[in-house]
Amino acid sequence: MNRSRTNLAVGFFVALGMAAVVFMALKVGNLASFDSSEGYRLEARFDNIGGLKVRAPVKSAGVIVGRVEGIYLDGETYEGVVQIRIRPSYHFSNDTIASILTSGLLGEQYVSLEAGGDPQHLVDGARITKTQSAMVLEKLIAQFLYNKASEDSGERK
Amino acid sequence: MTRVLDFIERLGASTTGALERLGLLARFLINLLGVILPMFKRVDLHIQQIYFAGVRSLAITIVSGLFVGMVLAVQGYEVLQRFGSVESLGSLVALSLVRELGPVVAALLFAGRAGSAITAEIGLMVATEQLAAMDMMAVNPMARVIAPRFMASMISLPILAMIFSTAGIVGAYMVGVELIGIDSGAFWSQMQSSVDFRMDVLNGLYKAIVFGIAVGLLSVFEGYYAAPTAEGVSSATTRTVVISSLTVLILDFVLTVLMFRGLN
């Protein structure tokens, strides 16, 4: 095999590898969609964050508008603090309500933002004051059983 | 009593033997590192070796990738349909291929296909005293023979791993979407929402580079220190495949723990 044929084969091989990486980046990994380092940060405090994880999506009206960047516990108020990063093209009013919801019955949890009517926008570093905690299944069941029990005892009287 | 002592003696001998081999490997690596950079100017030698190690492994890699992807699709569908979430097949296949199977299986195939060939070639060169002859002609065999083969395996394996993963995803697409009939939009969008380029694809690539270094180093090392007999070359070749495969699997565990520890 002469040298130029070898070079050609190796060049083809390397090009194929590069094409595979591009395929991974665009078709499989969706690199172009959202760069996590841009956008502005907001903070929301919840009594209970349930099973929310870092990098979970932040949605408004079902559209992904950002990602969860960090989660930690405030040692004084014992609230879970969720830091989220919103894409720069989206703006939310000051009275936006943040709630933690579950996609589907067993799906992953995400932060949902519902914009209010305040003309002032949330700026970088702002805190969302109106929040709704995650539903914890055990608590729901306990509440349901408690209500059921009190109904039953009410009927008996 | 003597039997116990015998046993302990053999244990000690095998331990010191293993340690000696490890020390030899370390010294070999240091010698090799010294000649890699100056040698890299000889691009033609490297291209020749990439051709033998990488390009000639292309067919086996693509075919294995296709079939691994197809099997993953069939098996994954079998399990996922019980939970009514066959749409997640795309993300299941892509994550397992990109994170684990791509680098690992490509490395195992590479060790069997190219690593064994490198060891046998160098071993035979040692047995027929070609390396000694080179040394006599003031050509450093470490630089002329060993370094290009090592670099070729370090460069080829990441490329092969990426091609393997891509072929696997295409195979899974063929079986999952074309044959079984999962919605093609859901297949790709589930895949895109769960695979992260930096976290998954790049980490897979880093793994493949580390495996390439490990397999390449073990192949040239075993060949270089092969006993200069027919039997010595054959046992060196076997050792290359066995030790490379084990090293790849162990390294894979260590790297996975290091890379994905902070994920959740």
Fold blueprint:
The complex is a heterodimer of chains A (157) and B (264).
Chain A: H1 3-28, E1 40-46, E2 57-60, E3 63-73, E4 80-86, E5 97-102, E6 109-114, E7 126-128, E8 130-132, H2 137-156
Parallel strand pairs in A: 1-7, 2-6, 5-8
Antiparallel strand pairs in A: 1-4, 2-3, 3-4, 5-6
Chain B: H1 2-39, H2 43-53, H3 58-80, H4 89-127, H5 130-136, H6 141-180, H7 184-194, H8 197-224, H9 230-260
Spatial order of strands in the largest sheet of chain A = 7-1-4-3-2-6-5-8
Terminal Cα separation of chain B, in Å? 54 Å
Series of secondary-structure elements of chain B, N-terminal to C-terminal = HHHHHHHHH
Question: Main sheet of chain A, how many strands, which sense, barrel?
Answer: 8 strands, mixed
**Strand residue percentage of chain B:** under 5%
The mean pLDDT of chain A is: 83
Question: What's this entry about, in short?
Answer:
With 157 residues, chain A is of the alpha/beta class.
